[in-house]
Every structure is written in C-alpha cells, then in structure tokens.
Automatic annotation (TrEMBL):
Function summary: TRAP proteins are part of a complex whose function is to bind calcium to the ER membrane and thereby regulate the retention of ER resident proteins. May be involved in the recycling of the translocation apparatus after completion of the translocation process or may function as a membrane-bound chaperone facilitating folding of translocated proteins.
Range of residues in the leader sequence: 1-25
Pfam families in the record: TRAP_alpha
Transmembrane segments: 190-209
This protein's encoding gene: LOC103706348
Keyword set, alphabetical order: Calcium, Endoplasmic reticulum, Membrane, Signal, Transmembrane, Transmembrane helix
Keyword Endoplasmic reticulum tagged: yes
Entry protein name: Translocon-associated protein subunit alpha
Family to which this protein belongs: Belongs to the TRAP-alpha family.
InterPro entries: TRAP_alpha
Subcellular location: Endoplasmic reticulum membrane
Protein origin, superkingdom: Eukaryota
Assembly with partners or alone: Heterotetramer of TRAP-alpha, TRAP-beta, TRAP-delta and TRAP-gamma.
Organism: Phoenix dactylifera (Date palm)
Amino acid sequence: MGIRVFSFLVALLFLASPIIQVVRCQSEADVDATAVVEGDDLGIVGDETQVLGDGTFSPAPGVDTICVFPKNAAKLVPAGEVTEILVGMHNEGESTLNVIAMHGSLHLPFDHHMFVQNLTTQEFFNASVPVSAQATFPYKFAVNKFLQPGSFDLVGTIVYEIDQQPYQSVFYNGTIEVVEAGGFLSIESVFLVTLGVALLGLFGLWAYGQIQQFSKKTKRATKVEVGTRATDANMDEWLQGTAYAHSLSNKPKKKK
Ligand SMILES: *[C@@H]1O[C@H](CO)[C@@H](O)[C@H](O)[C@H]1NC(C)=O
Ligand SMILES: *[C@@H]1O[C@H](CO)[C@@H](O)[C@H](O)[C@H]1NC(C)=O
Ligand SMILES: *[C@@H]1O[C@H](CO)[C@@H](O)[C@H](O)[C@H]1NC(C)=O
C-alpha cells in the first residue's frame, strides 16, 4: 500500500513536470517578447552604419518590385540563421536606376509601431537597372537568435536613386514565420525528452509494482495449492473405500 501511494506521487510528479516546464517557458516567452520590444540594443543584428539618412522617400513611378522566398513558400525564418530572399526590380521608368541599399525591420504583427528588430542594411555598389530591364538582388538577413518563434511582420525596403534623386520602395510587407534553428535545445525537444523520461519512469514503476504483486501472488498461490492438496488428501481419505474412490482408481485401468 505504501509503495502504491509512493509510486502514485512519483508518477504525479513526473507527469506534472513537463506542464510546469511549459508554463515556465511561456512566462519566459512573455518576458522575452516584452524585452525584445523594449530593449533598443537587444535585437540589432548587423545593423550597419546609417547610409540612408533619416528621411523616407517615396517610390519612383514605373518601378515595380517583387519579393521571393526561394524554396520557402511557408516563409520560415530560422532564428539566428541567415535567410536569403530575392528582390526583383523592374524598371519601367525613364532613366536607369541605381540600387543603393536594402534594409528591413521586424515588427509585431498586430502593431507595426512595435519595433522588434532592425535587420541588416545591405549596401550595393554599381548595381544599376537600365530602363525596361529587370534585375534580381539577394537580401540576406538574420533575425535575433533569441527571438521567440512565431509570426512577425517583415518590412523590407529597397533604396535607389534615379538622376541623383533618392527613392525607396517597400518590396515586402508581410508575415514571416520565425522558427527555432535546428538547435538541440528547443522547447519541444525538452518537452518530449521530459515526457519520455516520465513515461519510462512510469513504466518502470508499473513493472516494479507488477513484479511485487506477482511474487506476492505466487507466494499466496503456493500456500493455497498446499491447502487444496491437503483437502484433496482429506477427500481422498474420506472417499477411501467408497464407490467413488473405486471408480477413480478403476478409471486408469479401464483406459489401458
Ligand atoms: C531601427 O532603426 C531606426 C532608424 O533607422 C531607429 O529609429 C529605430 O529606433 C531602430 N529600432 C531598433 C529596435 O533598434
Ligand atoms: C561598375 O559598372 C561598370 C559598368 O556598368 C563597370 O565598368 C565597372 O567595372 C563596375 N565596377 C565595379 C566595382 O563593379
Ligand atoms: C505594412 O502593412 C501594414 C498593414 O498591413 C501597414 O500598417 C504598414 O504601414 C505597412 N508598412 C509599410 C512600410 O508600408
């Protein structure tokens, strides 16, 4: 009985530990999210010099941009790893354009005023797109490896000049899915390992309990057997000399 109660308690502890862990992870996530939003110096990966100045420019007429996530339809961005997207430019304007730089920023999906991270500013030298031409430029960025997985909004901007006039176009303004890089310590793996250990522990306890019960049963069973044998013997004694005993002892003979 004591062992049962003990094993039940241990099992409860094992079962509860992943739940406790998950709850803790969630509160950590909340803390992290607010920290990322508030901390100005937390999220800057490769935030290079401000080549762009403070001004925001308008898009040039006749310039179209397109953004492609190569082999990545789900727009998954592993935290801390470099992701490359391709930005296509189509110049239907009147003169050659020169690409100056691309930069991006990460925002909370529900509020674009919430800055999460300034992404790499990528400068270009000698990257021109003649009139009626198309060109594709890669943009490489990495989101902070401490960013909690989830949906974020990426705003990507390309800055260029035409006839010495600066312009900019937003080439991407949409959701990306930040996922954990293939690290060995993801929350899921911690959870699964804990669950596995808990199940193993439970199985061990169960097996231990079974063995204990089995040995008890066998002890009892042998006792009972002895008992029945005794009563059998008594019965035999009782029946000795009666017709029943005769028929019993005669049976083997008949079979022969
Ligand atoms: C990102 O850069 C802009 C200027 O380009 C700055 O105003 C803003 O505070 C920066 N945000 C973060 C989170 O560093
Ligand atoms: C820039 O482009 C011009 C012609 O478009 C070329 O002659 C020159 O070598 C290029 N410079 C660099 C640094 O790529
Ligand atoms: C991106 O889209 C959101 C809404 O979808 C909008 O509020 C925001 O101003 C856009 N950002 C830019 C830079 O166009």
